[in-house]
TrEMBL record:
It comes from the Eukaryota. This is DUF711 family protein. InterPro entries: UPF0210. Coiled coil: none annotated. The lineage of its organism: Eukaryota, Sar, Stramenopiles, Ochrophyta, Bacillariophyta.
Amino acid sequence: MAKPFKIRTVTSFVAIDASDFNNGALEQKIGRCSSLLRDIVSLLTKDGYDVQTVRIATNPFGEWLLPTNDTQLSVNDKAAAISRLHMLNALLGKHDIHFCSLGPSMKVEHTVNICPLIVSFSPGRFSCSANINACDVDSSIVAAKCVKLISSREQMEAHANDSAIIGEGTHLDGGLGNFRFCTASYVRCGIPFFPAAKAPSLGEGDDGSIKFAIGLENGTYAGMLLKEAKSIANVQRVFSEKWRNELLPIQRICEEYVNTKQSTGPIEYLGIDTSLNPSLDHNGSVARAVEHLDEVRGNFGQGSLSAAAAVTIALQSIPDIKITGYCGLMLPVLEDQRLAELGMMASSTSRIDIQKLLCISSVCGVGVDTVPISGEVSDENLSSLMLDVAALAGRWNKQLSCRVFPVPARRAGDVTTFDSPYMCNSCIFELE
């Protein structure tokens, strides 16, 4: 029987040490991650699941990518980082791993100098994030500058100063580099989704085990569940019954694998990120799924905040399911056909905007995601948005990220022209 949703990712988490690049340990760790991922995919596929991607996330790159922990980065530091990125890139290619998050930047110097370097590496395998806490103005300004730099291929080529790094690929064209960079606020280990995913830091929760988690693509199934619920009052009951029954087989497969494989090295199953996550299919929109509830008026209008809160509470309290990650309502504008449509509404009362996305983030988690903005946005305006996201995360103890796409030569109201299998198009959002 066909499953009602897909598995977007099986993500493994591994802590890397700088010494791993000199003693063969890096190849061993990547090899262990790859073996685990292939085993889990094989078991899930055998049980009828469609698994889309496998991914690896590391501890914060500042712990292992640079030869020193000095505040000021030298030319030699950058050269060493490039050398290690080449080595890791080759190993990931050898094991056919196409997605690898290198964790967050924890220092402004790393954000401005190293994050663009990571994102620029051909063929676009690497992603990363920049940590921003509430009221951290310096970090937000630097992150805003980084986002704008990444949006321009020409500026990225100048920053890398090495044509071999960027190559001839399209991974930076039209602002697409920011698909693999975000700011992350109060984000914990165990999120299987990129680019915020990270493994535990060395000495802080890292026990030497290879960890893994499951992320889903379930917009169509979300629509089925919320249509059945019909009212916000029924969301908890429907999700507790139906969602639990669908997730238990995945959990069983993962837990049985861990129990049979401990002799090959320590493995830890972190759980399932139960988030509602859209697809680009016609019926795959999470926003459209929420509109099935009677209390949601008009075009994702009044009642949508209450609906988002009800769904998030249900997702975070599914009986007998081990959860990890965001476990919230994902509303990425360029990955959800209905949200993209709402972004192009002629009427301001129907059109969704950044303030509404921020408002919903206060109850549903995840943050502001894949929002197209003008390439002419000022550092200050972009920084303020990042600070707003960080403030929400800090005030309400939520894991939130901010991923925006400054589009070169576009202004608010213009329609985007992205050519990506992972995104749809919408209007440029206004950011004042």
